[in-house]
Amino acid sequence: MNMETVETENTTVQSDADQVEILGLEEFRKKEPGICSIRHIDKVISKPEFCKASNFRGLVYGTFVIPSKKNLQISHNIFAFCLTPDKLYFIDEGSKVRKKVRAMEEEYDDEIRTPLVFLLDFMEYLIREDLYVLQGYEKTLSQLAERMNAGTVADTGKDFMYMRSELNALYTYYEQLSNMAQTMEQVVVQSGDETAQTLLSLYIQRVQHLAQMTHTLKESLTQVLDMKQAKLSERQNDLVNLLTIVTSIFTPLTLITGWFGMNFVNMHLLKEPWGYTSVIVFCVILTLAEILVIRNWKIFRKQ
């Protein structure tokens, strides 16, 4: 893409064909007062909340709120755009859009055909590395699952919860991009530009693939969390069974100990010389009998 850029004090970037321009919000209001006089357009581009696109009287305008791949829940790249029949405006108070445009220029060799084609190229450029990001999540999920099964990490639950929040953020992002593409589809069809139609079709397919892949990762994460909960419940059941067995064995012994510990005058075996020994033998036999009953009847054994 051969687009010479000129940087001015007003953070403006223009192509040699004067088709693409990057402005701050106030600069855009001064340059296009007619567009900004439409209240809902000015409201949308001045307060970006999520990725969206709208079509109004031949104008396509909207916002991008792109989660930063380094911190999906906190950091976002936020800017707006406005597409007229003969020019594409990016409204950005910083320099992130300019950097992305320059990076795209260095990578693409084709010249700008129309502002619409440039916008579609730019939208595709924004998600081109996302597949590798999702593959990284898939690898991390596998590693966490292995560590959980091995029992080498105690706080995997926190890692899983954090990953689920990030995947939810990504899935929402791709759903918003899909809605944007559907809004722009009517504009692209009306333009009659075959290149734009091809680009938009490929973009929709790619966004849907990313959304489906994210959804699959969410389901896999849910399955791993269910497995983790099942293992935790199994360990808790084992502990309860152990405590129940110990209680079942020692409750009769506690009763016998308490009974003879009262030292009633007329209690049997209390004054017999062999009484103490016989009680010990009886307790041992009783304990062994309880253990045999538990083993043979499979009491408290996991099904």
From TrEMBL:
Q: InterPro entries from the entry? A: CorA_cytoplasmic_dom, CorA_TM1_TM2, MgTranspt_CorA/ZnTranspt_ZntB
Q: Which family does it belong to?
A: Belongs to the CorA metal ion transporter (MIT) (TC 1.A.35) family.
> What highest taxon heads this organism's lineage?
Bacteria
SUPFAM superfamilies assigned: CorA soluble domain-like (SSF143865), Magnesium transport protein CorA, transmembrane region (SSF144083)
> Which protein are we looking at?
Magnesium and cobalt transporter CorA
Pfam family membership, one: CorA
Ordered alphabetically, the record's keywords are:
Cell membrane, Membrane, Transmembrane, Transmembrane helix, Transport
